[in-house]
Amino acid sequence: MKNFLIYRNVIFSISIIIVTFIIIVTIQLINNESSILFEIDFKDKAEQISAFASLIGSFLSFLSILFVLYTIFFQKNESMIANNQKDEEENIDLKRRLNLLTNQIDSFIDSLEQTNNQITIYIEQEKKHPSQMHTLYFSVNKNFSRLINNDPQIVYNALKTFNNQSNFEILFSELYKNIDFYNDLIIELKSNNKAYKRDKVKQFEKITEEILEVYDLKVKLISSYRKEFPWIYNTKPWVEKTNKSLYKYYKYLEECDKKKVQFDLDFVNKDIFEEFINGALFTIQATGIDKYGGLKILTKLSHVRKHLTFAKSNVYVYINDLEYYQKKYLMKNSESIIELKLINEKIKTLLL
After folding, report:
1. Cβ proximity of 334 and 109 under 8 Å
2. Which candidate, 226, 235, 248, places its Cα nearest to that of 293?
3. Which among 160, 104, 103, 117 is positioned nearest to 326, based on CA atoms?
């Protein structure tokens, strides 16, 4: 731009001098007088016209060359201005994209913290009531999907443009390493949780079916005693304990229905099953094994409690895995979160 102004001023100055000179010579020719500044001797008209034409032609040719040069310099200058404007617009666009990228990263980090809080709540629920079903809510954040869908080439160009150091490729690599990692991590957490819930439902459905079988056996036991001892069957120890167990079980189911809460197998096991088992074992020690299905009920209950323990152990295994992912990758003080924040801060400094 500066050089063009110099060239333009030089060309215009020379052009003005030449035009001025031509005007003076023309006036001299018309007046046919000798000029003080330019002493040109014209002998006759023909010679005057020939000399004037040659002089004017030379100057005009020179002027045409000057204006051709001016045109070349002008076009080159306009091209440079257009390219500079294009580069400036591209830089503005890249800067906006980087700014948007940092906002998306901040938003994604916030969503990770929200997911971490939801996992904490979920773990507490699973530990407190391992035999109940709970839902792990993952934070829904469209900014993360936009972050994943960003064109890496544009991000690469932006980092290259605004990073004066040679480590922009390292910054780019670290950024996408973390983005890809967290994308895979969220997908894995969702997939694992879905599989875990599916298996847990199957296990506890099976246990619930076994419990129904236990209570069918209890009803059959009472019917057998009633058939054998129609007038005094209610006084029999096995019938007393079985009736009490049935009453507590169905009362608990009724309470769950009224309160709109989940059926808790742990409560049933500890508050109802254990009481029945302890009473049944005492009765066996006092009167011996009955012949109406008491031992079969105890055996079935033993299987139910073993299956419940196994199902709960699977819950604790999954919770331990979830706590590992949470502490290592999702908590604020985890190395991965700190690294992602540091990368984002480095990108923000490029925009200052």
Report:
1. no
2. 226
3. 117
Residues in contact with 59: Cβ distance below 8 Å, sequence separation at least 6, in sequence order: 18, 21, 22
Residue matched to tokens 């500079």: 84
Q: What is the C-alpha separation between 344 and 105, in angstroms, rounded?
A: 7
Assign 3-class secondary structure to 264-316: CHHHHHHHHHHHHHHHHHHHHHHHCCCCCCHHHHHHHHHHHHHHHHHHHHHHH
pTM for this predicted structure: 0.73
Q: What is the DSSP letter of 328?
A: I
Question: Which H helix or E strand runs over 130?
Answer: none
The amino acid occupying position 324 is Y
Tokens 């922009």 belong to residue: 168
Q: How far is CA 46 from CA 52, 53, 249, in A?
A: 10, 10, 136
* Radius of gyration of the chain measured on its C-alpha atoms: 47
Distance separating alpha carbons of residues 173 and 160, to the nearest angstrom:
12
What is the chain's pLDDT, residue by residue, as a tens digit (352 residues)?
556 666 667 767 777 777 777 777 666 656 655 444 444 454 555 555 566 666 666 766 766 776 777 677 777 767 776 666 766 777 777 788 888 888 888 888 888 899 999 999 999 999 999 999 999 988 777 777 777 788 888 888 888 887 766 678 888 889 889 988 998 999 999 999 999 999 999 999 999 999 999 999 999 999 999 998 888 888 888 889 999 999 999 999 999 999 999 989 998 998 999 999 999 888 888 888 888 888 899 999 999 999 999 999 999 999 999 999 999 999 988 999 999 999 889 888 887 7
Which helix (H) or strand (E) segment holds residue 216: the answer is helix 168-228
Instruction: Kindly list the structural domains of the chain, giving each domain's residue range(s) and its CATH number in brackets, ordered by start.
Output: 86-352 (1.20.58)
3 state DSSP class of 8: helix
- 159 CB neighbour count, 10 Å cutoff: 22
